Amino acid sequence: MNTFLKLINRKDQNFQHWYSEVVFSAKLIEHYDISGLYILRPSAVEIWETLQAFFDSEIKKMNVENCYFPMFVLDSHLKKEEAHNSGFKQEVAWVTKSGQSDLEAHLALRPSSETIMYPYYSKWIRGHRDLPLKLNQWCNAVRWVVGDPTPFIRSREFLWQEGHGAFATEDEAHAEALEILELYRRIYEEYLAVPVIKGTKSEMETFGGAIYTNTVEAFIPNTGCGIQGATTHCLGQKFAEKFEVKFEDKKGEKAMVWQNSWGYSTRTIGAMVMVHGDDKGLVLPPKVASTQVIVIPVPYKDVDTQGIYDTCKATVNMLCEAKIRAELDSRDSYSPEKKYSEWEMKGVPLRIEIRPMDLENKQVCVVRRDNGAKIHIANADLVEEIRKFLNNIQQNMFDVAKQKRDECIQVIHTWEEFKEALNQRKMILAPWCDEKDVELDVKRKTENEMGPAKTLCSPFDQPELPEGTKCFKSGKPAKKWTYWGRSY
Predict the structure, then answer these.
(1) So what EC number does this one have (predicted)?
(2) Model pLDDT, residue 2
């Protein structure tokens, strides 16, 4: 009987089922009794904690302070900013009873905390010396999505951070939005090895109540779908007006604050799995892998078994002392082959195998998870070489992912080219007149079982737009280049 861990589904054949199988088999999640809710297992939380540690440290350098607000919001507060309320209306979950008694006021579970926090910003901000007020909270949010949920990507409860800044000037708000967006890029590219594009959302895709939304957009080549990685929203003075967040400026005059909100969530983990996973399971970038190296003894009959195990323990200790996250798999009831498949499923970046011949030759056999390469390393060079391998794997995973992403980008100029590229699951870069009616028309004419195409973002790094360039759909003068495609 084959006891090795193997996936039933293949990434390039049935991506949706492959993804669900991977996150379950690799023990990132466990299914819960309520549809759309998932248990995050320790391996998923450890990835989240790594990202959290990086981001929390960086925002504290920006003088952002952590806080926590209750997760309930009054109906009256939620409705104060109409565009914001409309954006969440279909996804808000409500608490209406306490025991058998109806609550006098219905309470919404936090879809986002603007309307929870800003009544207190109004209370705390009085003069220019109270600004800027920059708060962040690590918490959960609930959005009761309609349709089929997807673990990490579209779940009905998720973990995230949400930052909320209030400033005396518009320039300060714009500067923070860009600074935070760069941190989001670093999370994806430097930690998760997932390439992203920084840009601005269209009017239709802008966060409810915001003046504009900046985004880092990832892309999944296997499905031809974009994925919104993280966003910063410049709220202008809209919420300040609704919640009366005013201050006395240096001239002694009353003024409205300028505000931002920004957040990233456990969706990051799902994007990482989708981009890097293969038919053996997860492939983890070393920076976020809780176990970077797994050491496996491979004893033969009638050999110095104890010597192999002692060497494995010494190897793990040496790596751990060098701050490399290593672990020993000494389970006697599992064959080496079964251990290989299990740790491959979990995505551990490096596997060290130690056999009798390795003892004799004073070396170890190292196997890379990202490309399967096998290399023998002398014991004397072990720590230095393992560090090099981990760095190389991190960079190689990003380079491979970027190459695959870039191969999917197609520049088009006409509607016929657009339709052909969309059918080929491309990430489409097109000249656009930046009109809402045109985006609506594109969505309407591309609707099918896979969902409609829409704008993903207009990149900050705009290609040259020659004079006279026409919008691919309307034929009107183009104002910008914009990425289009289907999206999660």
Answers:
(1) 6.1.1.15
(2) 41
Q: Per-residue pLDDT for 3 more than 50?
A: no
Lowest-confidence pick of 139-148, 378-387, 463-472? 139-148
Mean pLDDT of 83-100: 88
Using one digit for the tens of pLDDT, what is the confidence trace for 429-462?
999 999 999 999 999 999 987 789 999 999 999 9
Please give the Cα distance from 316 to 362 (Å, whole number). Answer: 15
Whole-model pTM over 0.70:
yes
Token pair 């976020």 is found at 288
* Per-residue H/E/C for the chain: CCCCCCCCCCCCCCHHHHHHHHHHHCCCEEECCCCCCEEECHHHHHHHHHHHHHHHHHHHHCCCEECCCCCEEEHHHHCCCHHHHHHHCCCCCEEEEECCEEEEEEEEECCCCHHHHHHHHHHHCCEHHHCCEEEEEEEEEECCCCCCCECCCECCEEEEEEEEEEECCHHHHHHHHHHHHHHHHHHHHHHCCCCCEEEECCCCCCCCCCCEEEEEEEEECCCCEEEEEEEEEEEECHHHHHHCCEEECCCCCEEECEEEEEEEECHHHHHHHHHHCECCECCCCHHHCCCCEEEEECCCCCCCHHHHHHHHHHHHHHHHHCCCCEEECCCCCCCHHHHHHHHHHHCCCEEEEECHHHHHHCEEEEEECCCCCEEEEEHHHHHHHHHHHHHHHHHHHHHHHHHHHHHHEEECCCHHHHHHHHHCCCEEEEEECCCHHHHHHHHHHHCCCCCCCEEEEEECCCCCCCCCCECCCCCCECCEEEEEEEEC
Q: Which CATH class is domain 408-487?
A: alpha beta
Q: What is the CATH number of domain 15-276?
A: 3.30.930.10
Residue extents of the structural domains in the chain: 15-276, 286-393, 408-487
What is the mean pLDDT of the segment spanning 80-105?
88
> 79 or 284: whose pLDDT is higher?
284
What superfamily does domain 286-393 belong to in CATH? Anticodon-binding domain (3.40.50.800)
